[in-house]
Amino acid sequence: MIPSSFIHDLLNRIDIVNVVDRHVPLKKAGANYNACCPFHNEKTPSFTVSPTKQFFHCFGCGAHGSPINFLMEYSGMNFVEAVTDLATSVGMQMPEQSMGRSRSAGLESGSTSIGGECIEESTMASRLNLNEVMREATQFYREQLKQSDKAVAYLKKRGLSGETAAHFAIGYAPGGWQNLETVFSDYKSEATENLLIQAGLIIATDDGKQYDRFRDRVMFPILGHKGKIIGFGGRVFEQGEPKYLNSPETPIFAKGHELYNLFSARRAIRDAGCVIVVEGYMDVVALYQHGIEYAVAALGTATTAFQIQKLLRQTDDVIFCFDGDVAGSKAAWRAMENSLSYLVDGKNLSFLFLPEGEDPDSYINQFGKAAFEELIKQAIPLSVFLFNGLLKEVDLQTSEGRAKLVRDAKPLLKQVTAPIMALMLLKRLVELSGISQGELENLLQIRSVSSKKGREKTERPRPVSPYHWLIQILLYQPVYINKLDRELLAVSGELYEELEILRTVVEFLDVHPQVINGASSSSIVTYFRDSPYRGLLEKFESETLEWDDTIDLEAEFSGALKRLQEVQRKQRMTELHNKPLSQLTEREKQELKTLAMS
């Protein structure tokens, strides 16, 4: 139903790390990402995601595939629905022939029969309904803002223009207990009540009553990665607790995974080459109104590992901006700790502290854009901030103080996997502690990052058969199809299935040259979802997960061809030996002699 060319273009626009990370927390592990598998229970992570080849694999249960396969397995979508979901996320229009049959495809492969009734993808339908509920609530809050002199006066007092309020779709949740009853005509029905509770818009009491979660608050809609409203932040007008009230965790909203304004600020972040992370919604809004459009907020919580990963995928320069008080310092330290595992050489994380008593909102309203941008230039690099924080607690003039410094630094430095950054931090600790680098590496149990002069070639066991070997190479780097001698595929032997798989992969690449032109990074196995060889292809592909730029693919390919040539030579010799000598032609006798000598 869906042309392979469309699938190819779609997968080239999708990053599997982003797709999986929306549902499963991923942690950087060398060139790949790891997590506990979402498809079976485990305590030690065996689920790996490859950003290079755009596939996931679980070494525990064997789950394997592309972003499409992940959505099918994780969300219960059928193939067409998973493709549609991904296409929508990157603004691609589905081919008409697939759209017309998507419902029938769902009934064939994505539905579940319960009590004799066919229930089609209830989870997906629920999510779509939740998005619609959030959209209608947003519209209601925006209308209420226009009718509330109190809310309008408050926003004007804070310096907001009508255009800025409209850009962020800011609204007002009026006082009262059941204002949303006027929005949803079937408010009291069980289905609607459950939906509003799931969305976090109303709260149900034990005695069967319900009331609005947000009351008498300025409302800030929170957009997800697709630009749909997934939650709200509600701010009190003056004093009151909590100052900000966020939506609870829902099927479409995980507070620790989202960043306020990230979806809208993506282009500005790219243009600026950096992102500023602030603490409050009003900070983001005020900065935007003064022309600094590349700011996001961490939804009132400590910046999490998930949020840091998202930021580092958007830009190479992340600037955390905190209030200049004790709470701001603590929040900055937590952000630094959560960042260490995700540091990448070439990416910069820094920390900006405003004068005491100021926040980004108040500072930029008082001093303007230019003054704030000057402050940005004074942001403290993570490496400096880390040791500044450690040195506050020690006295370097004493042996005890230097020992405490090393002890406190150990758990932090052990998290850093970026080799150059790890080395620079270690050398700084050498300077401060007076202990040699070798001694520190032993004390901290850190593998030496400077003992090897160069990266050694990765040694790995060779596959049993040359067919297996060549399949792996073609899956990893399809361009090698151009160097393959097709006559070598004419052999037959015991490993007939692997030879047939190799021939099938070669035929596919011959028909789909766009896959081998270097523009594609997606997994070839995606196109074999209905093939009887899919299982073995997934196994072969998973074995390439540890390959990296230390693998000499030219040598690998040459070695595989030599092995295949040797198989062909032995088979031809056996064939000739099995013929009676009297039946051999002169040419065959000469061939046998040549084969025996080679």
3D architecture notes:
With 598 residues, this protein is an alpha+beta fold. It folds into five domains: 4-120, DNA Primase, Chain A; 124-253, DNA primase DNAg catalytic core, N-terminal domain; 257-387, Dna Topoisomerase Vi A Subunit, Chain: A, domain 2 (3-Layer(aba) Sandwich); 393-444, Pheromone ER-1 (Up-down Bundle), CATH 1.20.50; 466-597, DNAb Helicase, Chain A, CATH 1.10.860.10. It is 47% helix and 12% strand. The protein contains 25 helices and 18 strands. The model is unreliable at 98-128 and 449-460 (pLDDT under 50).
Number of helices: 25
Stated plainly, the CATH topology of the largest domain is called DNAb Helicase, Chain A
Mean pLDDT: 81
Per CATH, the architecture of the largest domain is Orthogonal Bundle
**3D shape:** globular
Distance between the termini: 51 Å
CATH class of the largest domain: Mainly Alpha
Number of domains: 5
**Helix/strand structural class:** alpha+beta
Biggest sheet record = 5 strands, antiparallel
Range of strand content: 5-15%
Arrangement of strands in the largest sheet = 1-2-3-4-5
Low-confidence stretches: 98-128, 449-460
Structural Rg: 30 Å
User: Fraction of residues in helices?
Assistant: 40-55%
CATH homologous superfamily designation of the largest domain: DNAb Helicase, Chain A
Strand count: 18
Itemize the secondary structure elements and their pairings.
Blueprint: H1 4-13, H2 16-21, E1 27-29, E2 32-35, E3 47-50, E4 55-58, E5 64-65, H3 67-75, H4 79-89, H5 96-99, H6 102-109, E6 111-114, E7 117-120, H7 122-147, H8 149-157, H9 162-167, E8 171-173, H10 190-198, E9 202-204, E10 210-212, E11 217-223, E12 229-235, E13 244-246, H11 262-272, E14 275-278, H12 281-289, E15 295-297, H13 305-314, E16 317-322, H14 326-339, E17 348-353, H15 360-367, H16 369-376, E18 380-381, H17 382-391, H18 399-413, H19 419-433, H20 437-444, H21 466-476, H22 496-511, H23 534-542, H24 553-577, H25 586-597
